[in-house]
Amino acid sequence: xxxxxxxxxxxxxxxxxxxxxxxxxxxxxxxxxxxxxxxxxxxxxxxxxxxxxxxxxxxxxxxxxxxxxxxxxxxxxxxxxxxxxxxxxxxxxxxxxxxxxxxxxxxxxxxxxxxxxxxxxxxxxxxxxxxxxxxxxxxxxxxxxxxxxxxxxxxxxxxxxxxxxxxxxxxxxxxxxxxxxxxxxxxxxxxxxxxxxxxxxxxxxxxxxxxxxxxxxxxxxxxxxxxxxxxxxxxxxxxxxxxxxxxxxxxxxxxxxxxxxxxxxxxxxxxxxxxxxxxxxxxxxxxxxxxxxxxxxxxxxxxxxxxxxxxxxxxxxxxxxxxxxxxxxxxxxxxxxxxxxxxxxxxxxxxxxxxxxxxxxxxxxxxxxxxxxxxxxxxxxxxxxxxxxxxxxxxxxxxxxxxxxxxxxxxxxxxxxxxxxxxxxxxxxxxxxxxxxxxxxxxxxxxxxxxxxxxxxxxxxxxxxxxxxxxxxxxxxxxxxxxxxxxxxxxxxxxxxxxxxxxxxxxxxxxxxxxxxxxxxxxxxxxxxxxxxxxxxxxxxxxxxxxxxxxxxxxxxxxxxxxxxxxxxxxxxxxxxxxxxxxxxxxxxxxxxxxxxxxxxxxxxxxxxxxxxxxxxxxxxxxxxxxxxxxxxxxxxxxxxxxxxxxxxxxxxxxxxxxxxxxxxxxxxxxxxxxxxxxxxxxxxxxxxxxxxxxxxxxxxxxxxxxxxxxxxxxxxxxxxxxxxxxxxxxxxxxxxxxxxxxxxxxxxxxxxxxxxxxxxxxxxxxxxxxxxxxxxxxxxxxxxxxxxxxxxxxxxxxxxxxxxxxxxxxxxxxxxxxxxxxxxxxxxxxxxxxxxxxxxxxxxxxxxxxxxxxxxxxxxxxxxxxxxxxxxxxxxxxxxxxxxxxxxxxxxxxxxxxxxxxxxxxxxxxxxxxxxxxxxxxxxxxxxxxxxxxxxxxxxxxxxxxxxxxxxxxxxxxxxxxxxxxxxxxxxxxxxxxxxxxxxxxxxxxxxxxxxxxxxxxxxxxxxxxxxxxxxxxxxxxxxxxxxxxxxxxxxxxxxxxxxxxxxxxxxxxxxxxxxxxxxxxxxxxxxxxxxxxxxxxxxxxxxxxxxxxxxxxxxxxxxxxxxxxxxxxxxxxxxxxxxxxxxxxxxxxxxxxxxxxxxxxxxxxxxxxxxxxxxxxxxxxxxxxxxxxxxxxxxxxxxxxxxxxxxxxxxxxxxxxxxxxxxxxxxxxxxxxxxxxxxxxxxxxxxxxxxxxxxxxxxxxxxxxxxxxxxxxxxxxxxxxxxxxxxxxxxxxxxxxxxxxxxxxxxxxxxxxxxxxxxxxxxxxxxxxxxxxxxxxxxxxxxxxxxxxxxxxxxxxxxxxxxxxxxxxxxxxxxxxxxxxxxxxxxxxxxxxxxxxxxxxxxxxxxxxxxxxxxxxxxxxxxxxxxxxxxxxxxxxxxxxxxxxxxxxxxxxxxxxxxxxxxxxxxxxxxxxxx
Length: 1461
What we know:
This protein has 1461 residues and is mainly beta. It contains seven helices and 96 strands.
């Protein structure tokens, strides 16, 4: 197929940045799988860069996206001029059907027309859109028949059409003869009889005698034809002057042409009349009239103030009328129009319909709309309105408001150059039931100059019964000096439906750009749809008193309160200054509608004025009476007035505000307070006039204020802020006391915080809870995420829409998932779209969509950035696939993903997906969603974590709260964690407050102790810690850590910023307290002493001591040659058996080098001394140049492998039927060093019974680490086995008694009974626990070769100081400085080697690499780290491939790397 003639006729086809549209007719080939596209390579500039192809198949309801993004050129890329491309996405669209419309123009003089002709079909299933009948021929000429093929919605059986033209061009008058509409449908038709030969007839003769011949009907395609005779003029100067007509098909008897008398009443207010063109569309049960121009009135000057204009509208009978839509085009100087009502008389049955309006259709009046949709009301309402002399207008307004939907339309103009437009913009909203017709977007709520670059314009539209929005059509009239417009998106908010839809566009509406279109059809993006609690309309009448100066031009607002403190948002009743001047005048009655008729009266009769009454401009009103009105037949009104029972009383609240007694604590800013109770709140009140001080909020001062409000019930919270005005705006608030004068209840709020832009967290607003409050505070965002994950909610509290059916996970555990996303560095790599991940497990078990929302301050995933997220989702088991996508739907939302990392801390595993692909509709392969298989990922084992619900309780002491950084280290029987920062999260760690949050802690249970440290920074560096509770969410085991003291350098008896707390379980401390006496022996060599500051860290069974500074010795001059210095550290938590010490100095002073002989550590509680020999230099110029040493304990004797040891063997028999045995069992241990003898486990006293664990003990030579076992089942007497039998073993646990190492074997196997030991089964060790004593014996000095490879990219090298910490199964190395004399280290593309001595770390688990960000060129790109244990030549590789730079990627200057073997 040659693409010759374009639909959008851009003349010069296939030009840069343009879109050409072609229509091609072919045979039905089913689903399109691929396409071939190319060119003939003719012409001077034959080369062509094809971006993409889209194929729309309306009859199938399919939209195919074919990305290409490559050259078709002999001189570019691979030189090909044709390419085969495949669809990246197949979208479902509305399925249309094909209609053939034949239009016959009459054989009259000047019967033809040059105007634009349109048609609209009406059927049982609805109506089509208005369709323009156009082709490249000269259509609609005299005595000709024009045939058009159109695709439109299937309306079922057609019962009428509307056809007309727009009256444009010379000789626009048109004589229409007939219209024929054809379409193919499926229908039941009689079956055709098949001709059969004589032989077959004879064979079937017998059967035909028994059965009747099948007849009946079958479903087949048939062509339906509808003939619509017309034979009339559609011309302004002929017949009735109408340009459109409604036609019935031949044979239609149900419907007939009807005449409607339309009476339009213009209101009797100043400026009510209009000179604009007015249009009306009347809707009934049988369709609508289409938009009709109200041209010929019985008045010469139409639509004047107080007048009635009558028009005749001829249409096919609509049945009972449902609504009407009336608008004007705002084209004249005096276009504003106040419409009172419309009355329509159905002349067929003489029925009158009343459509009250009582509103402006004006850009600069009311809500700015120039179109209104009106619904009919009963005649009795109109009579009531007349009786009330206009008083019932509000009720009618509420009736109409409740039946209509108010849409707020936000339109975002793009950020591109020249994106704005001066043209007139219009929109049409299409719902499942109807459309709004053309809405001229004239009256913007927030900007006078509309649709400028980067601007978001807001408009209000009201419509009746559209149903769910399906489509938006938006365009402009191409007028003005710069009509071209780049539209980014349109957002439509319907509060009454609780729905906010986003319609992405991201395209030009410009004759000279894109495809030249100036009208676009937009569809809602499912992933950008938001649901929320729907709003309901309320009608308000406000009566201003008739006294001097009673009116106001202020911005009046209202908040409605219901039961249990539920309230609406604060609603401002006027939208602009003009309305403020119009409303609330002296003696006036103003009606507003804010999102069975019952009226509640709220009396006030008080001033809202600063200079009158009590000076308050806010009043809270309680209802006095409820008036119920019921309209009876005949128009009589039954009115019932009931007094409100148990109405809330108005209370006076005396508020005492104490300003802190510290330097510059007072403020001159304006302070605002909101008080919350269980029955509602006061709203924000300005604390304007202090009752006891002229100059309020001064240092150390108490200011008293009285607030009058409706009874709040039990007060539990306040919100207080200031506006940061005046010079001394910073304010230290000490406390607030609220006294309910009526009940004499006092509520105390302890504050003790700054409200300042310069101090603490720079916030001017704080929320405080009443002293002793035990309710929900919402201080932990992770807890909220977990709760949302359980409910299947995202950040906007939206229910997820699943794209496919998946296995249900109703009550599965919720676990944290950690994500790291790296964005590429190419042009246009960044995106502002919202990104999500779905984790998929076995059997298509999957999490909800986990949204990766950027933190405040970040608007996009910028090129080269690295972002970290923590999300909570359902545990899907073993991860199989990961889906990554975003909600961007426009070409502008392209995104280049470099790498995705998914970590599951609770399972100790991390997957790294090297993506390097576009998620974009116009880049790469056109996919905006990717599915990654874990088989393609790099899998790394990381530290397994357990979730602990951690509660931190701050003491009830003055100034107990803090904003300093708090660090926590947790120690358990199986190791310790890294130091963790506890996030302040705005309001944690305040006086007398319990803060609960979730912590991910290494799996080291049972917990033994914790270390809490503060860094002493911030505006309030001191903290009074009461206690900490940690609850294991897996086991529900609770650990309590009690301190009840200050962490401070200046407060409390200890004057310390660090404390260690023992875990208390069931009132028993897990760790004893002791005193450590440390003796340091300096060597007897020349220059052995040091003047540097020496520090020590002791390691033992229960963790470490932390850094101990060796300051106060018995000797005045410490660490001199051949001298022993003694240091005493009382009241410390015992470490149990000691394993090693780490000793270092800071290399300060003249004689910094130090020769250390040994260190003795005495535990007074255990009465045991541990010796740590050294006999090495800690000096940069001696030995190996290290100033840090790790010394192993010399108390532990080595074990001779030839020595005998004892093994305890615990065998568990399965708890199943026939699992037990009465015979013996034998077992052999397979060790790394040797093999044990055969142990016969004699079955005495029913040892191997169902579900029982049998324990045996044997002596044997030491076999080393137990790797496997052989286990057999043998008869007691050695006789042959008569009947086959077996024993079901579940688990075997082997414990080596000398060192206490345990080895676990998961068996779950049937072991057959045999007479000899030639039948057995083998099992491998799946888990081992190495004892502390065993680890200690492995601590021998080992030299590690550390190789650092710096990347070969621009600016990869660094001049900063680099440090490394190596972690193994035997502990960590401490932070080591990687340096060499006279070497320029860590340069681009270089490999640097270091030899560092450490105690044997065993199997390496991870390393931490960091730098201090010093030097001119401190950024560093680290490729990888290789560490070799020179003792056993085992090399471990730690891949990195990331920046350590405060200005690149995620801004971090440290990386934790895990091994890749």
